[in-house]
Amino acid sequence: MTTSLIQRYQNVQKRIDDAMLSANRTDHIQLLAVSKTKPIEDIVALAEVGQRAFGENYVQEALDKIEQRPDLEWHFIGPIQSNKTKPIAENFHWVHSVDRFKIARRLSDQRPDNSPSLNILLEVNISNETSKAGFSPTEILDVAKQVLELPHLTLRGLMAIPAKTHSHEEQKEPFHQMKVLLDSLQATFPGQPIDTLSMGMSADLEAAIEEGATIVRIGTDIFGART
Ligand SMILES: *Cc1c(COP(=O)(O)O)cnc(C)c1O
């Protein structure tokens, strides 16, 4: 018998609860359900059991879903081409994958005046991979300073997709570096609502939670493998 969507979702919630317990954490963590390539029916089914936040990577696919469920909270987590910033600025509540200042400036310029400011995270290339998007950790404080000047954005924190490793100990290391970086961002800009570390996916959510993730982004272990 195949495990149902709702069972997989509840299993992930249990893993998160267990990881929070073993890390002695009583603060809030958000589960972002990464629904890219998955049908709206799956999103509707999860919304029925209380899931509010969904992550999408492809603009057109996401717009079709947002149009059907504008009441849910939508997070853009995919690579951003600069000619696609307008629909992102107009339709999402959060953007996790801001990897160039130019993208931040365009999102601010294109955020409608009557919308609340757009929550953004700076993507960090924490494993220093040439193939990967993101700022280098050494750039983050300078970029943050510039982003904080943009009127229609709220800088909420950092996001990372570390290189794949195998052991739990190896997984923890880049997540720990991200936590240190968030701490320095908060210390440099006190009074700003910088409170978010988006890290941890299906394969490494426990390590991320141990190191201080506040949003975990889970696709495969909720929705099943993507084809
Ligand atoms: C697809 C994706 C995820 C979900 O990954 P899973 O391994 O399927 O849980 C998380 N974050 C980003 C940025 C993604 O593109």
UniProtKB/TrEMBL annotation:
Gene Ontology MF annotations: pyridoxal phosphate binding
Keywords: Pyridoxal phosphate
Keyword Signal: no
Protein name: Pyridoxal phosphate homeostasis protein
Coiled coil: none
Protein family according to the UniProt entry: Belongs to the pyridoxal phosphate-binding protein YggS/PROSC family.
Domain Alanine racemase N-terminal as annotated: residue spans: 30-226
NCBIfam families: YggS family pyridoxal phosphate-dependent enzyme
SUPFAM superfamilies in the record: PLP-binding barrel
Modification type N6-(pyridoxal phosphate)lysine: residues: 36
Annotated HAMAP family: PLP_homeostasis (MF_02087)
Biological role: Pyridoxal 5'-phosphate (PLP)-binding protein, which is involved in PLP homeostasis.
Domain of life: Bacteria
Cofactor(s) this protein cannot do without: pyridoxal 5'-phosphate
